[in-house]
């Protein structure tokens, strides 16, 4: 499974040209403090687009998470959690609950541009 599998909704997109990487569809790309989602592969140096919010994605939880909780993108594990450890980026809101690490949950992508300290 990709880090963020698009499920439904109306995501909004911004132009993005990668430099030094080639994001694949479903990957989370952090720009500043904002985790964005590639819906398709983007070749290095070629303009593509990233979702900046509005969609619902199937994602892997890093721990038990209650529905309705703010969740954070953890780049080291490519998962979301609700504990906001140092360096995690706010991703959005869990729409379904996870009972343990590795559960797949629905997350509404609504980043607020903050990183945990």
Question: Can you offer a commentary on this structure?
Answer:
There is one protein chain. This protein has about 120 residues and is an all-beta fold. The protein folds into 2 domains: about 5-55, no CATH class; about 55-110, no CATH class. About 0% of the residues lie in helices and about 45% in strands. The chain is built from no helices and 8 strands. A hairpin with a 4-residue loop joins strand 5 (about 70-75) and strand 6 (about 80). The radius of gyration is 13 Å and the shape is globular. The mean pLDDT is about 95.
Task: Give the SSE layout.
Blueprint: E1 5-16, E2 28-31, E3 34-38, E4 48-60, E5 70-74, E6 79-81, E7 89-94, E8 104-109
Antiparallel strand pairs: 1-4, 2-3, 3-4, 4-8, 5-6, 5-7, 7-8
In short:
With 117 residues, the protein is mainly beta. Helix content is 0%, strand content 46%. Strands 1, 2, 3, 4, 5, 6, 7 and 8 form an eight-stranded antiparallel β-sheet that branches.
């Amino acid at each position: 499974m990709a880090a963020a599998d698009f499920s439904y909704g109306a995501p909004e997109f911004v132009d993005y040209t990668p430099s030094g990487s080639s994001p694949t569809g479903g990957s989370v790309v952090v720009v500043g403090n904002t985790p964005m989602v590639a819906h398709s592969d983007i070749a290095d140096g070629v303009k593509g687009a990233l979702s900046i919010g509005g969609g619902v994605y199937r994602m892997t939880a890093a721990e038990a998470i209650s529905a309705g909780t703010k969740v954070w993108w953890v780049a080291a594990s490519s998962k979301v959690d609700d504990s906001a450890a140092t360096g995690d980026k706010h991703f959005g809101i869990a729409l379904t609950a996870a009972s343990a690490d590795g559960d797949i949950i629905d997350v509404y992508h609504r980043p607020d541009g903050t990183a945990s300290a």
